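Subject: Interface between my chains keeps coming out wrong

I've been trying for a while to get a sensible model of this assembly. When I model each chain on its own everything looks fine, but I need the whole thing in one frame so I can look at the contacts. Pasting all components below, labels as-is. Any help appreciated, I'm running out of ideas.
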Amino acid sequence: MVSQFLKLEWKSLYRSASFGKSIGIKIFMGLFALYFIVMFLGAGLVLYPGLKKEFPDQEPIYILNNVLFYWILIDLVFRFFFQKLPVMVVKPLLILPVKRSKVVNYVLRKSALSFFNFLPLFAIVPFGITLLVKNYPVVSVLSWMLAVVLTTLIINFLNFIIESFSAETEFSFLPVVIFTGGLYALNHFDLVSFNTIVGAGFNAVYENPIYVLAPLLILVGLYIYNGKLLKQKLFLDSGLKTKVKEVKASNLEWTKNFGDIAPFLRLDLKLIWRNKRTKSSVWMLAMGLLYGLVFYPNPQFKNFEGIYVFVGIFSTGIFLINFGQFIPAWDSAYYKLLMSQNLKYEQYLKSKFTLMAISVGVLFLLGIPYVFFGWKILVAHFAAAIYNVGVNTHVILLGGSFNRKKIDLSQKAAFNYQGTGAVQWLIGIPLLLLPMGIFSLAFFTIGFEVACAIIAVLGIIGVVFHKQFMKAITAKYLQSKYKMIDAFDQDN
Amino acid sequence: MISTINLSKKYGGKQVLNVEALDIPKGQSFGLVGNNGAGKTTYFSLLLDLIKPTTGHIINNKVKVNESENWKPFTSAFIDESFLIGYLTPEEYFYFIGELRGQNKADVDALVSQFEDFFHGEILGQKKYLRDLSKGNQKKAGIVAALIGNPEVVILDEPFANLDPTTQIRLKAIVKDLAETKGVTVLISSHDLLHVTDVCERIVVLEKGEIVKDLETSEATLKELEAHFTN
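Reply #2:
Try treating it as a single job with all components included. I did that and got this:
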């Protein structure tokens, strides 16, 4: 039976329409994984000699045990964003003679084979071998290693429980933030000293191998609980069909002021507010807006004005980037309708442009408090906002005409790569790096004021030639009409 | 109204449609039947300029559809669910289509209210998004949306599939009325021979992309079609 499941999954993998298409993302992820493997391997090798050298009078393993708590927290956060829930198409299986518990067990056990569970081994094994070579007691070292592996699996299953709660909330990363943040805070303010508790636990396992039963029991408990959660979802009416909330129809009458683009503007606003994926990218606005706080309070960046324009472009353009890069894929589900309707492509694109331009203005106004860190920041942000309206909106609309990937609006946004292709990575270059490059060049050769002026003037030029740009962009969209219809028709 | 000239469509060397000539006069209710893969949806997609013809072209009311967009104001269609906007309520969807076709709210309301029977109280005022309606109800909304703005050509792909018997009967009345009293050219494809002979004045049978039969509907048509599809 398990081999049947494996066959199904293999087929779903290499027969999927996007197989081989998203090579760029896979290479990126591969490099990412390789980087972590090397890091962990390196850590595993230098851990023993390094700790021995720094703290000659302490046992390296005890020091390590004391910081394992932080590793657990970081691992949880990382997994939340990068590890995919073990999913399987269960609907066709439900009426076949397959026991539900079998499906559940298979899905859960498969998740144990995740890359994230193997990663710690790259550090633990060399560290353990070093210990054995240095004549530490064999049983103790082995049971300690076993305990770490069990902990990895505990994190694995804990993550799924957290994810199953996130699936039900709008703001999907709230549960993991609350959970890990809460644990960290309790520990940090010495209310409950988790790092000592965790450390003492691992010390105990090392000293008395019988205690390895404790993580084992926790793991079994989590496994059973996960199984229960999953089993509940294996019914059509719970997991596969979602509740239907009563909705309030709205007219958005005020959009009438925008004239002939009003119907599209209304449609876009509803699109953003009524779908999971777009709605959660609204929350990203807050992140973008606060992005400056990473740099500006930091004295290191005090005299590094080159960063101002970068932050300015990013924080006033976060909506533009988030929303704009998936034009027209947002409308992919009903693109055929739009194409056979009596509509002017130009109005459709102009509505998107207007929305992005307004967002830049609003985000600039909201970012005015940054003036607290110096007037130069405000000036740079203002120039960046003009650049965003004049140049970046057009660039991103043009990039959209190369868009060939459909988007499922009901999925959450963070780290969702659906609809992402090479275009989305490449478009970042003109969007962010180009203005930053121009600015830095002018800044270092002439001065801050001139650099800001150049960025602003580029933006103004873009605004002046808006009509011509839009004509060219519209032509580009019309050119790729058939290709887009065909691509949006395919499930990826 | 609609003339098809030397139209063909190939996908990777495989011919899926090849129609030398097909003329559909104004006000005709036209039925397209054929087994799966016969080319019905391909023909409709070509008529709506959603795919590119390999050779030939279609002229819709003097407009060459793959060269000009001027056929759009008087042509409307419902092909499949991808013609619906899932996150709108049916009313919002009707108004949106109405706006694109130059109709104000009152116009749309007036038109939609004629279909209250057809909706059977399951579409209007439900406070649900289209994506949350059942397949049949989605179809009802899509078909009615295709009638907004007094189109002269209405294209419906498999309109009877997924509909309950009551609605199927009502839909037949609507289609007949469109062609007979309003002079609308209606193009329908269907797998249901009975429905299509009931509704359409003319039925064309496609087989592997080619026209094999072109019939004026009469008493004998249903028998003839059944005989054709039996072997």
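Reply #3:
Confirming on my end. The beta strands of chain B are 2-11, 14-24, 29-33, 55-60, 63-64, 75-78, 153-157, 185-189, 202-207, 210-216.
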